[in-house]
Specification:
CATH architecture: 2-Layer Sandwich
Structural class: alpha/beta
Largest sheet: 5 strands, mixed
Number of helices: 3
CATH class: Alpha Beta
Strand content: 25-35%
Distance between the termini: 33 Å
């Protein structure tokens, strides 16, 4: 955990559904690497709900792209849902919203 007491975690909700909670930022993304690698080994499909994200910066979009790449290289499928507006705006400005596997209601 960093000096700012920033934290992020992934919680198993049900079957292949997971909830990401906390701050998705440059300071916290390294905390998730082992969790994501473990998930891609366990499940053939991962649905990652981002509704628990309290703050995000541009590193958030980079980590989503990395997770997508990791899942694909493992022959798995990952889907992001309930993307915070700030992160979706970053994806749109970067022209990445059409690349990321985003499910919107």
């Amino acid at each position: 955990m960093s000096e700012n007491h920033q934290d992020i975690r992934i919680e198993r909700m049900e079957n292949k559904h997971y909830l990401l909670t906390g701050q998705l930022s440059f300071d916290t993304i390294s905390q998730l690497q082992e969790d994501i690698e473990s998930l891609t080994k366990e499940d053939s499909e991962i649905i990652l709900d981002l509704s628990g994200i309290s703050r995000v910066d541009s590193a958030g979009i980079v980590v989503l792209l990395e997770w997508m790449k990791l899942a694909r290289s493992s022959g798995k499928h990952i889907l992001f849902t309930n993307i915070p507006k700030q992160l979706l705006d970053i994806a749109r400005v970067s022209d990445l919203d059409s690349i990321l596997p985003i499910f919107q209601k």
